[in-house]
Amino acid sequence: MRTLIVDKSGSLSIGEAPMPKYGEYQALVKMISGGVCGTDVKIIHGKFKGMTFENDYPLMLGHEGVGRVVEIGAKVTDFAIGDAVLLPFVDPAGDLKSGWGAFSEYGVVNDAAALERDGHKVGSPLFPDCAYAQTVVPPDIDPVDAPMIVTLREVLSSIKTFGITPNSSVVVYGCGPVGATFIRCLNILGAHPIIAFDVDDSKLEIALRKGAAHAFNNGREAAVSRVREICPDGVDFALDAVGHLPLINQSMELIKDRGRICFYGVPADNSAMIDWNKAPYNWNLCFQQFPRKNEEGEAYNQVLAWLRAGVITLKEFISDYADFEDIIDVFDRVEKRQIALKCIIKF
Asked: Per the domain annotation, does 293 fall within a domain?
C-alpha cells in the first residue's frame, strides 16, 4: 500500500509499505480521509517527544484518520464490514516505524467492547488504550469530514482535564485549527470572557466568529495591558494552544490568584526556564501533551450530540481539502501558514 513517509532528514515522500496485519479482535480498514495536525509537523522536524531521527525514522505519518471496514477478525463483534471507523493506526513494518500511520491506504482498528467482554485488560498486548477512541462514525456523519471529530474530542476532553468551567475567564493563545476549536468549545460551554491572541489578523477574525469576546494581535499589542483592561484581577485560565514554551512566562502576568496556565500540545523543546516573579503567589501549571484515549472516547457522545443538534458543524472547522497525491504540497502550505483551519486529506 502507499503511505506518507518522513525520513531521517525530515523529507517527505509517498512510498510503499506492507499491508497491515490484523488479529482476531481487530478490523482492517481502507482509509477514507485524514486530518493534518500540528503534531505531524513536529514529527517531521524531529521535535516530537520520544521520537528521534536516529532511532525512530523513517516512519509513517498521520493520526487523525477515518477508514471503512473491509475485513474483520474472528472475535470482532462491534465493527461490521462497511462501517466507517475513527482513528485507524498502522504498526511498524520492516524498516518503517510508525508515527501512527493514518496517512496510508489501509489501517487497523481494535474492538474494545469485544476485548472487554472476553476479559482482556487495557494495556495488554491485545488491548492498546487507543481502542477506546476507535469508534464507529454514525451513518448521518460525513466520513470525509469526520477526522475533525478527533480534534473536537481531544479539545473537549482537555477542557475537562484543565478544569475550565462555565463563567471562567480564559485567554487563548493561538487561533489556528486547535485554538479555534478550543474557542468554539469554550464558548459553547459558557466560558466568559474568552480573550484570543494571535499574530495573524485573519486568525483573529476567525476567533471572533468562533466566540471570542475579544481578539488582539500580540505581535503589535501588549497582552498584559489588554487582559488587565478587561479583567483587572487577571483571568482564571491562560491557555497556550500553540505549543510555544515562552508563553508560560508571559501568562504569569495574566492570571489571577490561583489561576491556571494550561499548555496543550507537544512543545518543540522539553525544558523551559520558568520565572514566576510576576505571577500571583498561588498559581497552577497544567500540561496536556496528549489526551488519554479513554477520555477522548468519553467526549465522543457530547461531540455527536452537538453535531446532531446543529450546535456545531464539522465543516465550520475545515478550511481545505486535498487528495492524498497532493499531501506533500499540503505540508508545504502548512509550513507557510497558508491553511487557516483543518485540512482534510481524501483517499
From this structure: no
CB 60 within 8 A of CB 20: no
Same domain for 124 and 157, yes or no, is no
Indicate if 190 and 261 belong to the same structural domain.
yes
DSSP 326: G
Q: Where are the alpha helices (DSSP H) in 26-110?
A: 38-44, 53-56
> Rounded to whole angstroms, how far apart are CA atoms 185 and 219?
25
Q: How far apart are CA 129 and CA 138, in angstroms?
A: 22
> Of 271, 288, 305, which one is at a domain's C-terminal end?
288
pTM of the model: 0.95
Rounded to whole angstroms, the Cα distance separating 244 from 269 reads 9
Residue keyed to cell 458543524 = 313
Secondary structure letter of residue 346 according to DSSP: E
φ and ψ of 30, to 5 deg: -95, 125
Residues of the domain holding 79: 2-146+315-346
Residue with cell 508563553: 247
Counted domains in the chain: 2
Point out the residues of the chain with pLDDT beneath 50.
none
Q: Which of 244, 270, 288 is the last residue of a domain?
A: 288
pLDDT tens digits, 27-46: 999 999 999 999 999 999 99
Tens of pLDDT, residue by residue over 165-187, are 999 999 999 999 999 999 999 99
Are 194 and 109 within one domain?
Answer: no
Same domain, 257 and 335: no
284 secondary structure, DSSP code: E
Q: What is the dihedral of CA 190, 192, 197, 202, to 10 degrees?
A: 60
Q: State how far the Cα of 33 lies from the Cα of 237, in Å rounded to an integer.
A: 34
In this structure, the strands spanning 255-264 and 235-240 are: parallel
